[in-house]
Protein 1
Amino acid sequence: MGFFRSMDISASALTAERFRLDVIAENIANMNTTRTAEGGPYRRKTVSFEQIQKPFSEYLDTSFRGNGVRVSAVHEDPSPFKLVYDPNHPDANEEGYVEMPNVDIVTEMIDMISASRAYEANVTALNAYKNIAMRALEIGK
Amino acid sequence: MANNIFSHIDKFKVGLDASWLRNEILANNIANVDTPNFKRSDVRFSKILEDSISMKTTRDKHINPASSSNYSVEVYEDSNTNVRMDGNNVDIEREMNELAKNAIWYNYLTHMVTKEIKLLDLAINGGR
C-alpha cells in the first residue's frame, strides 16, 4: 500500500466516468445526425470498463486488489436504425423513409445520471482519503 | 505490565495500517462500480485488531503479535453478496457507508495514538 494509491484509484475512476459522460454527450448531440464520415446515420456508442491489472512490481503483494479502472473499449451499438417517414427530408429513400440514428434519448439520460452519480461517489471517496491522510499527518500533534 | 513503552502504539499501528489498506480497497470497489464481472474485496481488519489485543505474552521469549512485523492483513474477495446482471456485486450504498465508517475509525485511532503520546509525555516530564 502506497501513500497516494487510494487517490490514484479514485482519479482513474473519475477519468473513466468523465469519458463515459463525454460519449453519452456525443450520443445525445448526434441523435438527429443522418450523415457521417462512414456514410449512413450516426451509430450510438457505448463504453465498457475493465479493472487495471496488477503490475509486475506488485506481484508478491497479496493485499493488492487493483489499481482502479480504465476504459477498455468504445463499442458501436449494432441495433437497427429507426425508420422515420419524412418524404421531404434530403436523406429520405424512395418510399419516403429516413434512417435515423439508433440513439434513444431516455436510455442516454439514464446512463448520464448513472455516470454522474458514479463520478460523485468517487469524489466522495477521494475526499474520505484526503481526510484520513490529513489525520495521519496530525498524529502526535 | 508492558515491557515496551510503545507497545500500545504498536497495537494501534496494526489498526491504522489495516484501516489505511481498507480505504484503498474500498476506493477500488467504488472505482469499479460499473466494471462487468468485478467482485468486491474487503479487509478483515477488526478481527486482526481483536486478535492482537487478546493474545497474551506470558514469558519474555513469547512473540508479541502486535510488535512483530509479520502480521498479515487479510484481504478477501466477497462472493456472498447479490450479483447484478453484469456479474458485478458492488453495492454503492454499502461501499459509501463502509468508507465513512472507515474514515471515522481511522480518525479514532489517530486520536488514540496522539493521546498515548501525550500520556508518555506526561510521564516523562513528571506532570510539569
Protein 2
Amino acid sequence: MKKALFLSLVSSLCLSVLPASAGIVGRGVRTHTATTAAWGVSVVNQSGIISNQDYALGFSNNGNTSYDYFTLRNTGNLTTSTFNVIVIQDLLKNKNLSPADVIFERCDGTWNTTTNTCSVTPVQVATGTSSAITVSIPLGVNSEIKMRAQTPNNNRSIGISLRVQVSRSSVRGGQVTHS
Amino acid sequence: MIEVKSKKSWRPFAGAAIIISVAAIAGQSVLASLNATAFNTAAQNINAGTLKLDLANSGNGFGTSIANVVPGDVINRYVTLTNSGTLDGIGLTLKTAQTGTQTLITDGTGAVTNKALKLTVTSCTVAWNTTTGACTGGTTATELASTVIGSLTSPITLTNSTMSSGAVKYLQMKIELPDQNETTINGALPANTVQGGAVDVTYTFDLKQRLATVTNS
C-alpha cells in the first residue's frame, strides 16, 4: 500500500513538471472517398453465363453446319473504344481439323438461333486462322456485341479458345477536373 | 507481586497538542497587531486566447466523393482553412489516414508496379475559381509537393505554416492517379490492380498556438 502511494506521488510530480510542449492546437478534419473505374470485356455464352477465363468454342450441331453463339459484353464501368479477342489454337486437337473453316461473324441486329440468321446482314470478322479479332466499335457499359462462330459439322470438334484483352488505352484518357 | 505499568505511547502527543493549542489561543491575543491591506478595486480581467481552425468546403471540396477515377485523372477540390480563434497560430500541418484498396494508398515495389494516389496542396491568396481552377488576382504557392497519399500518415508542415488570428487559407487539393498500364483479360482484373478500388481518406489539419511569451507592462 505504502509502495503504491509512493509511486503515485512520484508519477504525479513527474507529470506536473513536464513542459507544456503540446499547447493549444486547432484542428480541422474531413474524410473523403475516392473510387476507381474498371475496364473489361467478357464472353457470355448462349446460356447467359459470363466467362472470366479463356472461352473454348463449343459447337452445336444444326444440320450440315455447327454454330456457337456468344456475346462480348462490357463488364467494366467505362465505355471501351477498341479491344482485342485473341484466337488461340489447340494445335494437338486440331491436327486433323481445319481452323480455316471456322468463321466468326457479328450481327448488329439480332441472331435467330433457330433459323441461324441475323436480322441484318451479318459481318464476317475473322476466321479460325486469325490471330486476333480487333473490335473497334465503342461498347458502352453492359452493352454487348453479338457474335457467332460457325464451321462445317465434320469440323465441329475443333479446339479454339477466345481470350478478350482490354488495355488501358481502350478506355478514356485522363482528365483534369475542378469542382 | 510485581505490578507492571504499561506505557501509553499517545500520552506525549496528547501533551504536545494541548501545549500548542494553549499557545495558539494565548498568542492571538498577545501578538495581535495592526494590519494594512491593499487591493485593486477593479478585478483584473484575464482572458485565455482561443485557437480554432475551421475547415470548409469551397465548391464540392471534400463534401462530394470522387468516382470512376482512371489512371491519368487529376481531380482538384477546394477547401478553405480559417483561424477563427483569437490566437495566432504556427506550424500548420497536414496528415492523412486512409483505409481501403492498398494499391491506391502505396506504390508497389519490385515486380508490383502499381502507382497509388498522390496529393498536391497549393494555396492561393484569394479564393480559387472552383470551376476553372484559376487563382485570379492572387498568387499561388505550393504548400505540399506531390506526395503518395500513404506517405502522409505523419504530419507534414505546410510551406506557409503560420496563420494569424482571422487568417484564411484557400487551398487546392489536387488528387491524381498516375498514368499506368493495365490490361484486363476476360473481364478479370489483374493482380495488384488499381481498378475498381475505393479509398477513404481523412485529412487532418493541425495549427499550433503561437509561442508563449513573457511580457512586462
Protein 3
Amino acid sequence: MARFLFTLLPLIGHLNPALAVAATLLERGHQVAWAVHTAEIGASLPEGAHVYTLASGPAAPASPPVRGLRSVQLFFEDYAFPLAERALPDLVAAVQDFRPDVMAVDCQMVAGAIAARRLGVPWGSLACTSAAILKAAPPVHAWIAAQHEALQRRCLPLPAATAPWPDLSPHRVVVFSIDALVGRRHERFDAPFAFVGPMQAVGRRPVAFPWDWLRADAPTLLVTLGTVSRDLETRFFEVVLEALAGMPAVQAVMVAPQRLAAQAPPNVLVQSFVPQPELLARVDGVVCHAGHNTVCEALLRGLPLVVSPIRDDQPVIARQVVDAGAGLFLRHGKATPAAAREAIERVLGSTALREGARRLAQQLQAAPGRAGAADALAALVA
Amino acid sequence: MTDDDSTRNAILAQVVRQIRATIDEDWLWDLAIGPTTRFNDDLEIESIEFLTITEAVQAHYGARIDIVGWLSDKTLQELIHLNVGDLVDRVATTLARR
C-alpha cells in the first residue's frame, strides 16, 4: 500500500474534491496525509486525519471586492505566490517526515509543485478549476509566468530546474471536469490530463433546511454566489429579489446574508447556508457566479444555469457553460431586474438549454469520477 | 475642429458602434460611452466580447491596426485600465502613419 500527501490552497472549493479522492485512496487501504493551513480548513478535514500544519499565509482573496482581470492579478500577487513562499519550508518538512510515494498537488498550490520537484517525489496535479489548464491572454500569461519564475529562482537550488508556468505535473494532471465542458474556446496547456469529472461530496456535515417550504408543483430556482462572494455585496441579490418578486409562480432559494430575508418576496427563501447537493436534486435551474464546483454539480444533474461571473476563473467557466448550450450569461455588476427576469424565464422555460444541460449531465455522469482520480494518482506509485 | 479631431471623432464613433452592437443590454442603452470609458471597470467586458469588438474595428480599418501585436505589448496593469480612448489612439496613430 502506498503513501499519498495532499496539499492545496486553504479554500473549501479546493478541499472538497481532494477529500473525495483521498477517501477513495483510504478505502483502498492506502495511507493519506494532508499538508494544509489548518487554521483555515482544519475543521473540514475528516476526524483522525494525518495532518501537517502549514504556516498561515495571507488571508483568502475575499476582499476588497474586485472583479475581472484585477482579481486575477490580486489572486496571484497578494495570495497564491506569497502563500507558496510562506508555506514551502513547512511543506518540505512534511514531505521529509511523511515520505510520500506520491504527492497530490492543487494546481494553484504552487509550493506543492516546487517541493515535489525539489525532493524528487512523483506527483500529480489536481485542477480544481478547469481554467488552470487553459492559456490566458498573452499579457496576463506573461505577467503570471514572470512572477512564477522569480519565485522558483528564490526557492529552487538550480536555475536549470525552473519549470514554465503553470507548473502542471509532467506525470498526471487530474481535472475535475470533462473534455466536452472545457471546450475549445481557450487553448490548453500541454500536459497529461485525466478528465475525471466532478467529485460527489463526501463527509460534508448535514445542514438543516426547511424542506416543507418548497411546493412540489412550482418551478424552483437556486440562487447562489458561492462561499467567497456571498457576503461581499448585496446589489446582485437585490436585483434578483426584485426580478423574482414579479414572478410569483416561481419559487427560489437564495443563499445570501440572512438580513436580506426582510426584503424577499414570499416566493423567495433566503438562507445563509443550504445543503447544496440535496437542493440541486430538487430544483429546475440555478443562478450562480459560475464557480467551478457549483457549475459542475448543477450540470451533473442536468440543470440549466444563469451564470453571472464575478472574479478569478469564473468568467472562463461561465463561457464554457454558455458555449456548451447549457446556460445564459448575466453581467454581474450591470444586471437589472428586467434582464435577470428575462434570463430566469428563459433558463426555466427553454427546452434547448435543458437539453444542453442534460447532454452534459450524461457525459459528466459517465466520467471516471473519484475512482478514476484515485487510479490516476495510484498509477504514479513507483 | 482640426482634421485630426474629426478623424478621432469618427474613429470613436466607430468603436462605440461596435461596443453597442456587441453588448446589446438594457443598462448600456442610456449610458454615454466616451474615451475615458474603461473596458474592465465600466463595461465589465468579457474577453470574448473585447475580441469581437477589436476584430470588428480591425476589419473596418485594415490589418495594419494589428490589434494582437498592440495588445501583446501591454502590461497587465495597462490591460486592466484599458479604455476606449486607448483603442481610438491605436487606430488613429496607425492611420496617421500611412
